Amino acid sequence: MIPGLTQRRRFSDLSEQEILALAISSEEDDARIYRSYAERLRADYPDTAQVFDSMAGEEDLHRQRLIEKHRERFGEVIPLIRREHVSGYYARRPVWLIENLGIERIRDEAEMMERDAHAFYLKAAQRTSDAGTRRLLGDLAAAEAGHEARADKLVDAHVGEDAEAQEARTAHRKFVLTWVQPGLAGLMDGSVSTLAPIFATAFATQDPRTTLLVGIAASVGAGISMGFTEAASDDGVISGRGSPLKRGIASGVMTAVGGLGHALPYLIPDFWTATTIAMIVVFIELWVIAWIQKRYMETPFLRAAFQVVLGGGLVLAAGILIGSG
Questions:
Q1: Rounded to 5 degrees, what are φ and ψ at 10?
Q2: pLDDT tens profile 215-252
Q3: Which CATH superfamily is domain 9-161 in?
């Protein structure tokens, strides 16, 4: 392990050797993913499977060229650095999840992979002072752009969508990465994490005003914390997740909304009326979260509902038990 990799590092802090090592491991992962796509599609879409086989082979060639360049400049020992070690670096969907993907979704994933890789090589080339390395990274950026064009041809071959639809998919992806994902994370955090303090206070004091103040403080505090954390965790340059300011606003606002939803019923002076309405709001919040996961993250609704409702129910029960004790 490279010193300092116990925590995620910023891409801008990587040395040229570490950038090459990151590119090598990324190419290896992408080749493995393409081969998994090929096996998934081979029975029903053999032509598309061959395309993915070819793309995996090209990723292998890219990795070999990168290894040769590393050997030339830095020797035989390649540092162990992977995507998960770098803050803001684009992530890949776990390979086992492709069992739930159809050809259209796999096509979208392939386009996204090549777009991310192209952006990475362009940024990596800018960080490199060695002329030979810069040329290699530039060549690989061009090759990844060619892969993206090849992935686009899958649209014509199997779906027949036009350029306007392609632009719509790109815009939708950016919307999900910039607004939906951080907003959903915030809504989940605000809705679930504030359950225990709010309901513990409610049942401990049975005072709507005190519960309201605690709920507002917990919700606003969590919103500020989540907003700053999201904005500071990823500048969006490599991951393509968009403006950190926009993501911070989405995460912070939705975190506060998630908590305030079941805090504001305590504006009602009658404790049991307020508590009953707050519990109904909690139920609605959890189902909205499950629906968003189904709508934008393609998580099966029943699985999303089970996970969210179970987790929220446990936190709610903990708050009630603590407050009642």
A1: -75, 145
A2: 999 999 999 999 999 888 877 776 667 788 889 999 99
A3: Ferritin, core subunit, four-helix bundle (1.20.1260.10)
